[in-house]
Amino acid sequence: MRAPSFVSRVAGLFARTQGSGCAGDASRSRLASRLPGNRSQPSQRARQHPLLIGLSALNTSFAGADETAIERSLAFHHTHTDEQLSVTYFADGHYVVDSLFRIDHLLRDFRTGEIYPIDADLLDTLHILRSACGGGTFEVISAYRSAATNAMLQARGDGVATNSLHLQGRAIDVRLTGCDTARLREAAIALARGGVGYYPVSDFVHLDTGRVRVW
Asked: Is 6-214 a CATH 3.30.1380.10 domain?
């Protein structure tokens, strides 16, 4: 039997993250702002990308799959603080609240120390990409960004958007160990779960949970 293609693996992993829940009434208020919601529709430019066209043609259902049995894990290394974290953030059909707190802390604004809830949708995107691309560690360049830091970067002329999704915990700039950054970009575009920006000189990919677009 022929091995599944790279795009097929991405599509299958995406299907397996659907239908997730959260851990009980006590944690729902903590998770309400971060749980996966409706996907935004791809832009015309994104729709025309060949990997996205191929992905949309695939049957992404997992017949008989037990979604509650699937664990979702991530590994991070923050390039500015040198902090590392390897954590299972979803297990037994629920998001693990303590793990989400640990992720929030690692992905805080490293300049100000301000912590903000990271969108679980973004974590699921990272999980799918990590699984599809070989299971390495995400090297974090930037994640949550406070208003003060965003304003500072704008004043410095770094090309930072006024309404950046980094301000909402919905964006991250990363590399993935063991995976060429251009290949990570292609996988993210094929997944079509939000914005994908590629910065080859700095060697990182921007991922967010906004509308689907590519730059």
From this structure: yes
